[in-house]
Fold:
Amino acid sequence: MSVDESGLGPVGTHAARSAATRAALTAAARRLFGDVGYNATTLNDVVVAASVTRGALYHHFEDKADLFEAVARQVYDELWESTRSAVADIRNDHWRRLMTALPIHLKVRAKNLEAQRILFIDGPAVLGWERWRELQAKTVDGIALTLRALMDEGKIAMGKPEPLAHLIVGALNDAALAIAHAPQNKALLDDYVAAVRSLVGGLMLREAD
Structure:
């Protein structure tokens, strides 16, 4: 049986411990970043909450920003998967898939206050503009692919789908923030969902009479 580099035990056992430590750190950091924000969270807070040593933290993460990025990617991937799975059965109707996915995308973000703080409030400042945009690549790429399919089908005007996808995602992000900070966010959510449908619905070309 192989042993880890320290000679203290099997490689598999060491890998499992390492994975558990990383999971504990990201879980603790996620709670803190979601509750009090990036600036109010210290690395000491994280190691205490995770019940690990500071050395263990630095074994997995370079600094607080690196830890935050890992948490942000985890949160984003969960939100992305929730939207993707909700429309997974819509395969052959690109327009219905888009018009179903966008309201769901907005709803899951608007209702998740942890995601609001981590992804949209602290995210751009901590990660920087380019890395924050990169974080949303799955969403932008997915929308762009659908837009390209609709262009090829002649349902929306031909053009470059990527800039349009970025504009749509930007509108959704702004709407999610507006809803989260509104006192009557349920009513506002319905209004923004209707607005998203109207905005994107305007891309559909009218059939010739």
Summary: The two ends are 75 Å apart (CA to CA). Residues 1-9 have pLDDT under 50 and may be disordered. The first helix runs from residue 11 to 36. The chain has two domains: 9-61, 63-201.
